[in-house]
Amino acid sequence: MTSPSPGTTAGKNPGDIAALPFEAAMSELEAIVRRLEEGRVELEESIAIFERGEALKRHCEMLLRNAEARIEKIALGPDGAPAGVVPLDPQE
Question: Which residues contact 89 (CB under 8 A, 6 or more apart)?
Fold first, then answer.
């Protein structure tokens, strides 16, 4: 078994994912997908980066859900003037 090559994500701490902003997590996930699609990664490293990719995917999905929950739309009153804000996609 060989050690991960420089620039791999296999050696990174999975706990650091929670601190990543969406753009950084998505960029790393895209890099993992490219590496796996190339097919030049040894089995053990493939498993490790696949697992990290899964964690990054879950993190990105959570960040997107949180962002969607914060988005609001402007509610218009009967006269057409802004009357406040309401959730973009109410869950109730």
Answer: 68
C-alpha–C-alpha distance, residues 41 and 35, integer Å? 7
In this structure, the strands spanning 72-76 and 82-87 are antiparallel
Distance between first and last Cα of the chain: 53
pLDDT score of 4? 41
pLDDT tens across 23-80, in order?
Answer: 999 999 999 999 999 999 999 999 999 999 999 999 999 999 888 777 777 777 788 7
Q: Rounded to whole angstroms, how far apart are CA atoms 20 and 60?
A: 9
The residues facing 73 across adjacent strands are 86
Q: Tell me how many degrees the CA angle 73-91-65 measures, rounded to the nearest 5.
A: 75
Q: How confident is the model at residue 2 (pLDDT cuts 50, 70, 90)?
A: very low
